Amino acid sequence: EPTVRTELMEQIPPIAIFLQESRPKFPTAFFEYLMPIVVRYLTDVNNQVRKAGQEALLILLEQDLVSQSDIENKVCPILLDLSAPDSDDEYKVEAVNIICKMASMLSRTTVEHILLPRFCELCSDGKLFQVRKICAANFGDICNAVGQEATERLLIPKFFELCSDSVWGMRKACAECFMAVSYTTSPEVRRSKLSPLFISLISDTCRWVRQAAFQSLGPFISTFANPSSAGLYIREDGTLSIRPPTQDVNSHSCQPRNNTTFMSSTTNAT
């Protein structure tokens, strides 16, 4: 019964946490018995079971309960198979979604060498716009996961493709994550490549794309500032924030006006 398998998946994470805490008594139980079940259910015929398996896998990754060897040798090969060009449409959409969610939890080497080539292929998937849209919506997270060099060498060309996609929802998703992509690149790439690209989005024929681009204009401009002097940084969730100054703000004769805002908000918070 699919409901039984679904219930089983929901119990895997707490069991795994218990085994982790009791490792001297159960040194290999998780890797020998539970992890193979999670991997197998990623390809279950029932979509609810697959969804439960995907959620269980993400929880296990968040808790750092899956070994690097299991990720590379058991989980990644399954996801690569499910996201292959000839894979079933439903499986492919689920696979690219889980790949994007996993990226921030894995090592940079694993993402760059194993998952990034497939992600780049999926960005150009001409069959399913849903696949391209998931790639566009999570593009900033992938850039952050692989770093500047891989972003500029492999991802920026794909970002250009998505920003000119015939589906307006794709271009809107790119506009919404533009700041996160820009933050990962060098100042030269921001000036010479991303700035003209952003102008094309802010001048898009679709008003929803233009609106998203205008909402991202301020955050995009902020990526040109020197973080050490502007005090701006990107949180883990991809939002822009202000870093507290390292020195007393009164020690400087000329302070940016937003320091006043920061101090007042800090005062109110306390």
Describe the overall structure.
The protein is mostly helical and 270 residues long. The protein has a domain at 1-66. It has 15 helices and two strands. It has helices at residues 2-21, 29-41, 47-62, 68-82, 89-103, 108-123, 129-137, 139-146, 148-163, 168-176, 178-184, 187-202, 207-222, 227-230, 258-269; strands at residues 232-234, 240-242. It has a two-stranded antiparallel ribbon with strand order 1-2. Helix 1 packs antiparallel against helix 2 (29-41), helix 1 runs parallel beside helix 3 (47-62) and helix 8 (139-146) runs parallel beside helix 11 (178-184). The N and C termini lie far apart (54 Å). Residues 245-270 are annotated as: Disordered. This is PP4R1 phosphatase.
List the defining traits of the structure above:
mainly alpha, 270 residues, elongated
Number of strands: 2
What is the average per-residue confidence, as pLDDT, rounded to a whole number? 84
Termini Cα gap: 54 Å
* Biggest β-sheet: strands ordered side by side in the sheet: 1-2
User: pLDDT below 50 for ≥5 consecutive residues: which ranges?
Assistant: 247-270
What amount of the residues lies in strands? under 5%
Residue share in helix = over 70%
For the largest beta-sheet, the strand count, sense and barrel status come to: 2 strands, antiparallel
- Order of SSEs, N→C? HHHHHHHHHHHHHHEEH
Region (Disordered): 245-270
Keywords: Repeat
InterPro entries: ARM-like (IPR011989), ARM-type_fold (IPR016024), HEAT (IPR000357), HEAT_type_2 (IPR021133), PP2A_Regulatory_Subunit_A (IPR051023)
Pfam families: HEAT
